[in-house]
Design goal:
The chain is 21% helix and 30% strand. The chain is built from 4 helices and 8 strands. Helix 1 (23-31) crosses helix 2. The chain starts with 13 loop residues before the first strand and ends with a strand.
Length: 208
Amino acid sequence: MSHSHEPEPGTHPRLRRLRAGDADAVLAAFASCPEMIRQGNVTDAASAARYVAALINEDSSADPETTDEPATETAGDTTDACDDKDAFAVVDDNDRLWGLVGINRDAANKVGWFWYWMHAATRKRGWTSQAAATVANWALDHGGYERLELGYRANNPGSQRVAALSGFIPEGVERKKFLVKGERIDVHLSGRLVTDPAPETTELDITW
């Protein structure tokens, strides 16, 4: 089935749970930008299906390696102290996935590692900040989390902005953590507690 390379004009993004049927759109998102390789190993239909299965907790042996991606996304390791995952698709009016916001749950500590990515065609529209803020608010208000954590590269101002607009507070720096194209890059860490104020960022609707 063919799909447009970008959302239709005037579309209104919303959130819903990730589904197995989203694998084709996930593959398209990974193909939209070479740097998406830092989000995981998705190169064909089979690997996209495995990636989605891991995120909807159907295949724990195929955890996606979500890391840092320029302009919009966060740094992380989905396998670190992760009991399960909450994954929300950012979809358009036709229910097609264009992005993903996820949390890897450490149930014992009520902590979640927070991450997100978007198809290249949907960046710089405000969708990422709205989606991230909505999921973070849900996680702390209703999802059973008491602390959320994320990280982003020091040379990634887009992700820094998303973190701030989602209510995350800077907490420190992991110096020279990533090696990217021969250059060592610092990673900035941020956190958000259940007691921290919610951001004023406009929320998206969540369809359950």
